[in-house]
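Let us work through a complete example step by step.
Step 1: write down the sequence.
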Amino acid sequence: MQTWEKRTARMARGAALVLLSGAMLTGCFDGSSSSSGSSEPELNTNLFPADGKLKATIRRTEGGVPHIKADNLKSAAFGHGYAQAQDNVCLLAEAIVKARSERAKYFGPGPGKINIINDFSYKAQKILSGAEEEYPQLSPETEAMIEGFTAGYNKYVSETASADLPLECKGQPWVKEITPVDLFAHYRIVGQYASGALFATGAVFVAVPNGESPQPTPVMNVSSNTDDALNEELKRVVASARANAGAQTDYQDIGLGSNAWGIGGDMSEQGKGALLANPHFPYTGHRRLYQVQLTVPGYLNTNGAGLLGTAIPLINFNENLVWSHTVTTSRRFTLYELTLKDGDNFTYIKDGKEKPITSETYQIEVNNGSPTPTVLEKTFYFSEYGPMLAADAVTDGGLKAWGVNGKAYSYRDANASTKNLLDTWLNMSRASNLEEFQAVFQNCGSTLWTNSTYADDQGNAYYIDSSSVPNLSGATLAVIDFKRAVNADYNALFEGGLTLLDGSKSRDDWVEGQCNGLVSFNQRPQLTRKDWVQNSNDSYWATNPNQFLTGFSPMFGSEQTPLNPRTRIGISMLQNPMEMGFADRAPAGQDAKFGAIDLIEVIYNNRTWYTDMFLSELRTRCTVIGSDPVNLSEGGTRGVDEACDVLQSWDGVYNTDSIGAHVFRVFIANYRDDFGADLTVPFDAANPVATPSSPSQTDAGTA
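Step 2: predict the structure and record it as tokens.
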């Protein structure tokens, strides 16, 4: 039974919240019937309800943001799961379909046969089976959150008629109740967004010994008159998977980004910390962020946004501190080159001993438009490190196919396990100061594939690369450095995000240490300041140029290398808070210190580094050229006076009503390819914000 009480309130000018509606949500869902046999520990009433009944109050404020209050963590997660289902049931249901390797079952082969490829690959990456195996090992806190969230989601699904669901999933059989293991499997996909997921589009699918076919085999619903047509379809699946495997050319650039500033007390208006969080995640799809406040009196009070399906928000604040995340330059996996036993593609040699390459066979269902789905079967292969990989497809032949030259390839993923995912963010949310926040990472907490940028009420600004990073020995790192220096092909792989290790030597195994093969707290790049820290998806090394960070494992990223333009404009505004550039106000307003309004204005000032650096010079050249035609690099001439006129009147920012921004955007997209040849001041690691810079004065009439 759910009761709703509609309320209205007059909002005093400047007030932050308006109560739109409230609900007391109750249910007798304890989750135990679907928790894969796990049992609750001795009752902790901060985590579990004493009477077994889940109860939560959901208030929605302006914009529909849910504020959920409950007496225990499981009940808070119950309310959270219900609220997310109210707002995103179709997306959540679809995410679970993916985690269960059932996209082809419900949606057919998909564009480019991607559903078949993904479903099989996720089975090989043990998304669901790994969740089943790890679920009994979860902490009571994580169990409470997963089971509570699942119960809330299931309550919404069970009480909502299929015909009343949103249009995207109305009447669909794949919107149904889920198990806690299903939700945990979804977290394993989230964990591998920047690692294994990059191989789930084809590289794992086509990993078979040279000369063998990676084509799946039909085992049901195949007649003689459809066999040939199906065989042709399956050939297209393989072709698509191989093409996908080679499409990702830079495993460091995964298309995810964000900006974050941590402002310390010395640079804030109130003398306390402040934070600018500017995540660049999409507004649609499974990677959209969902805002929520969770309150368990005396235990938890956190407000923020998280990826859909996560039972606790990930970019958060509480009464004492705040943090945000940016995608890091660190490496979350390593490739292993295996040396095969002579004449045997399924045995490799390590430290002189034979090791088996094992196999597992999986089946998936494919919707073919008939009442009976096609069932496909395929065998995948594994080393001790993880799934085998079609490295020849991944590297466009740079590495050879399995068995050629006596080699084969596998990989180990730092985020293959997400047992600690919810514990990490719960403990961050419960921290009350910097020491407690850091303790999360001292205890091997990980934010998967992101940095953390932090500020608190004591005026601390803090940065840490808190991602999951393989812990390699000094000997292995020395070999990597040597190979990069003497082998251009090896260095090209490394620069493209592929760290190739020698699987024939235990020397190159990850050092298990305190954190099960991941780099521990004291070895991570981190910085505490009273002025500011920042990250915009660049390497950690220039977090604050007043205190460079150097000497860390190259697995975290490069050092003393050029910065991206978002980093340069961000640091420039932090270093020069009273300079406006082309914006209509200075970043820190009138007092050189940042307040909340200032930080909001920074997000929307739409300044860019390229404009600040090049627009004035470009306008000068336009004046010099006038109406004269310019020489084109490919030959011939062209007049640029119309484009120059537009640039002369452009306001220099990227507002929606700015006229001329598109012209400059086209110019810079072409000109930046010439930076190395045309900029007269080269990169200087001692001055990374201002360099490289200064266009040459030669060929001023060339476009």
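Step 3: interpret the result. The radius of gyration is 27 Å.
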